[in-house]
Write a structure and sequence with these properties.
The protein has about 170 residues and is mostly helical. It is built from 5 helices and 3 strands. Helix 4 packs across helix 5.
């Protein structure tokens, strides 16, 4: 049996799915646009594929999965918040952002070798409990109106996180 190009293209479409179907070279949904064939997943394992026709039933988001990984109590508390399904999506998203900020502040060092987290923790423990924004600049301020400049976004975000957690 000889097929025309149009017939051949139609058979490929029906068998493999339409344009935009499939994920990273995986089989598409027969006759459909978008998604991957049932039971297929992308290269990242179980979260990379599945699409509308995939088999993601019974699977939970990575935000709500897994045991506590961190030994640091601050990070452990944030990780628990990220997995807490009783919190709103925005609260869990904020906890995820805060965790990323804390991790970065613990890794980032000034020229003198001290970390952003250690330095700001000392300033905040010394009484600086307010952030003042003055134009494009931000400052930590204590009760005597002493100011410590917060130069980077990481410094501002970490100081904001520490002050927020002190009041809750």
């Amino acid at each position: 049996m000889k097929l025309s190009r149009l017939q051949l293209a139609y058979m490929i479409f029906v068998l493999n799915g339409g344009p935009g179907s499939g994920n990273f070279g995986h089989a598409g949904r027969p006759g459909e646009v978008g998604g991957s064939a049932k039971g297929e997943h992308g290269p990242q394992g179980r979260w990379g594929g599945g699409g509308a026709g995939g088999s993601d039933e019974g699977k939970r988001s990575p935000f709500t999965q897994g045991p506590q990984v961190s030994r640091n109590p601050v990070l452990a508390k944030l990780e628990a918040k990220i997995r807490d399904e009783t919190l709103t999506r925005d609260e869990r998203k904020q906890a995820s952002y805060d965790r990323s900020t804390v991790q970065s502040a613990m890794r980032t060092k000034y020229k003198d070798g001290s970390t952003v987290s250690d330095t700001l923790d000392k300033v905040i423990a010394g009484g600086a409990t307010k952030i003042k924004i003055s134009g494009p600049r931000a400052y930590l301020i204590d009760a005597q109106k002493n100011q410590w400049p917060l130069v980077t976004k990481l410094e501002r975000d970490y100081a904001d996180f520490v002050i927020r957690t002190m009041t809750t």
